[in-house]
Write a structure and sequence with these properties.
By secondary structure, this protein is α/β, with parallel strands linked by helices. The chain is built from seven helices and seven strands. The longest helix is centred in the last third of the chain and has 18 residues. The chain is globular and about 50 Å long. Bound molecules: uridine-5'-diphosphate and magnesium ion (MG).
Length: 198
């Protein structure tokens, strides 16, 4: 069940990670630098999705360095959707971000998402422009986004982008399990939320 405690913070960052020990310190430091620049109180919720490397120890170490870091540890590897749900259920932000742990998403882009939220969007989906994935993946991505757009009417360039921002109400309304996290923008639109991309 989702946590219904009132929001107490402007920003939450929910970051699922499977064996991401090496990238978490840099990610946490750059998110907190951006939040500090914005003058916004925030929390960084790392969800350790059953890692077998030092991910959990690294999260524990970061908590000493950065008071905004929180850790959630899943008993086993349940997959990204479950890890996101566990993080969202604990997020206290008015705006809740999801980001990948592997430094694919640049915290410097956080302000762009916040501007879009301030401009009235409920869901802001990232769109990787200089995409470093292999060519076959880019083709699959175009087919996926095109098909989903045709079937659902929700047209986005990069529906699956791991970098998204939500107004709190969205994550309290939309259930995420299995592979549903891929379709959060569609489910949100069907629930009457406004969806856009940056
Ligand atoms: N991830 C996770 N559990 C899993 C698989 C992946 O929490 O079982 C995390 C992973 O650590 C990363 C994010 O989900 O932070 C996206 O995974 P990945 O980078 O492998 O996906 P891609 O960027 O290739 O779509
Ligand atoms: Mg990745």
């Amino acid at each position: 069940p989702l946590d219904r405690r009132p929001a107490t913070l402007p920003l939450s960052f929910v970051i699922p990670g499977l064996n991401e020990a090496e990238s978490l310190p840099e990610l946490a430091r750059s998110i907190s630098a951006v939040a500090k620049e914005l003058g916004q109180e925030h929390e960084i919720i790392f969800v350790d999705d059953g890692s077998t490397d030092a991910t959990w120890q690294v999260i524990a170490g970061l908590r000493e360095e950065l008071p905004s870091v929180r850790g959630v540890r899943l008993r086993a590897n349940f997959g990204k959707a479950m890890a996101l749900s566990a993080g969202f259920a604990r997020a206290r932000g008015e705006t809740v971000f999801m980001m990948d742990a592997d430094l694919q998403d640049d915290p410097k882009d956080i302000p762009k998402f916040l501007e879009a939220i301030a401009g009235g969007l409920d869901v802001v989906v990232g769109w990787k422009v200089n995409r470093l994935d292999p060519a076959n993946r880019k083709v699959l991505s175009r087919i996926f986004n095109g098909t989903v757009g045709l079937v659902t009417g929700v047209r986005l360039h990069d529906m699956n982008c791991g970098f998204k921002a939500f107004r709190r109400e969205v994550i309290q309304t939309i259930p995420i399990y299995g592979d549903l996290f891929r379709f959060i923008p569609v489910l949100a639109k069907w629930q009457g939320f406004s969806v856009g991309e940056v």
